[in-house]
Write a structure and sequence with these properties.
Number of strands: 2
Structural class: mainly alpha
Number of helices: 11
Distance between the termini: 37 Å
Length: 346
């Protein structure tokens, strides 16, 4: 196949540090583009059903889902700002006019503290694992993205999960970051170390299959498009389209697990806000049975269009920016190597 294969993409002169820089820039750009969509969505939700004290909602910056707890009696919070909107476009216009353009990125900075490192870990691990697995698998190197994507997601989610749980608890209980150590110690003493990874199961059930399918389909689609347009190196357009297609497919297939994960996250966050034990939260499959009993089988695919609208551009922007960054560093490294050789030959 023409176009870069999974092994070559990680091992052709790109250092891990440069991969981190490329993924970091991609993560920031993705969050800047996608966050306004979620801010408007949350504002429209709050208009239809005002958030009471202790209520939780899911906030997505294009990189990760975060549980946010409504502040106790704070009517000036960004998600409770006054305004009457007649739809998405109307909300965009009125928010910019009434509150300034910065309001479209409300709530973004605190979530980036975890979302950017998680994305950097995930993408860098994927490239390193994919390069290593491609060599080991030999004739079956095409399966390397599938395995590398799954393993990289397991690693990043496992590292970030305790931090996200602590962030939710700090927000719900209005603690300062100085009390972080006490918060961790009390949780471990009362419920054990495993309490820091509560909710990890549903997250892995959604994110690991998503990542495996996403990377496998992305590499295959990218190679196919490179063949079709007779180019050895994938262009920005090819990586953008490949990211959007593979992200869309993976998001639809894993939607039932996303519905369950979101419901469990909200339930857990609200229990923490009320200082109740979150151990009463049901298992993933019992939540699935409850959803099917209440809303039918279609309830597991509720909200597929909003998720598709959010995931497709996020995947496209992230991967195309990441690939562009890697291409920049690749050319930079080649110039550094070839520069002295050219000078010595003249």
């Amino acid at each position: 196949m023409s176009g870069q294969g999974p092994a070559s993409s990680a091992s052709d002169g790109i250092t891990p540090l440069q991969q981190m820089a490329a993924s970091c820039s991609g993560a920031i750009l993705t969050s800047l583009f996608v966050t306004p969509l979620d801010v408007v969505k949350i504002r429209l939700q709050a208009q239809r059903n005002p958030f009471p004290k202790g209520k939780c909602f899911v906030y997505c910056n294009g990189l990760m889902d975060h549980i946010c707890v409504c502040e106790n009696g704070n009517s000036k919070a960004w998600y409770k700002a006054p305004g009457h909107f007649n739809g998405t476009l109307d909300a965009f216009v009125k928010i910019v006019r009434g509150e300034g353009i910065k309001a479209l990125w409300s709530g973004l900075p605190p979530t980036l503290v975890m979302a950017v490192p998680a994305t950097v870990i995930y993408f860098t691990c994927y490239d390193q694992l994919c390069a290593a697995l491609s060599v080991r698998l030999g004739d079956h190197a095409q399966e390397a993205p599938l395995m590398a994507g799954a393993l990289a997601r397991v690693g990043s989610v496992t590292v970030i999960s305790p931090l996200e749980l602590i962030r939710t608890k700090l927000q719900s209980q209005k603690q300062s970051y100085r009390e972080l150590t006490d918060c961790i110690r009390s949780a471990v003493q009362s419920e054990g170390w495993q309490s820091l990874w509560r909710g990890l199961g549903p997250t892995l059930l959604r994110d690991v299959p998503f990542s495996a399918m996403y990377w496998y389909n992305y590499e295959r689609t990218k190679s196919w498009l490179c063949e079709r347009y007779n180019t050895r190196k994938p262009t920005f357009t090819i990586t953008f389209i490949s990211g959007a297609i593979s992200g869309s497919f993976a998001s639809i297939v894993t939607l039932p697990f996303d519905v369950v994960k979101t419901r469990r996250q909200v339930e857990m966050g609200e229990l923490q806000a009320k200082n109740l034990s979150s151990q009463v939260s049901s298992s993933t499959f019992s939540v699935m049975r409850r959803i099917v009993a209440q809303d039918g089988f279609g309830g597991l695919f509720a909200g597929y269009l909003p998720r598709l609208i959010k995931v497709a551009p996020a995947c496209a922007i992230m991967i195309s920016t990441y690939e562009f960054g890697k291409a920049f560093f690749r050319e930079h490294n080649q110039e550094r190597i070839l520069g002295p050789l050219t000078t010595s030959n003249t």
